[in-house]
């Protein structure tokens, strides 16, 4: 296992993004179509927040009436904007940050994805799944 491997070697580079004009319904569609759990919210190429699928579940299931409800009632999405639901105080890493450093950050925090930002621009995203897949490749 290489000790100085940069996160850029395992991050997702073609990132699905949202902007603050998008709706939470659009976000849910992107989560499901792309089988992802985190979407950076951008203004141009600058990241301003991160929306997780868990954020959507938190607001939508609070509205669920029946325990056996499988489909999310998207009516509740109209009550919130992406800016109200997204995480704003982000921890980000540079593309030269080592995979080990990323693993240390994620192991100590309560989130599962980090935006990779160089000079203020979103370059990619790295998730705990990316880290696990990297470790599996080492064996």
Q: In brief, what are we looking at here?
A:
By secondary structure, this protein is of the alpha+beta class. The protein has five helices and four strands.
CATH fold assignment: CBS-domain
Classified by CATH, the class is Alpha Beta
Mean pLDDT: 89
Order of helices and strands: HEEHHHEEH
Outline the low-pLDDT stretches: 63-67
The CATH homologous superfamily is called: CBS-domain
Number of DSSP-assigned strands: 4
Q: Count structural domains.
A: 1
Could you walk me through the main structural features you see in this protein, from its secondary elements to its overall organization?
- With 139 residues, the protein is of the alpha+beta class.
- The chain has one domain: CBS-domain (Roll).
- Helices cover 32% and strands 19% of the residues.
- It is built from five helices and four strands.
- The strands form two sheets. Strands 1-2 form a two-stranded antiparallel sheet.
- β1 (38-43) and β2 (46-52) form a beta hairpin.
- The longest helix is centred in the first third of the chain and has 11 residues, at 24-34.
- It is globular and about 50 Å long.
- It starts with 23 loop residues before the first helix and ends with a helix.
- The model is unreliable at 63-67 (pLDDT under 50).
Can you tag this structure with a few keywords?
globular, alpha+beta, 5 helices, single chain, 19% strand, CBS-domain, two-stranded antiparallel sheet, 4 strands
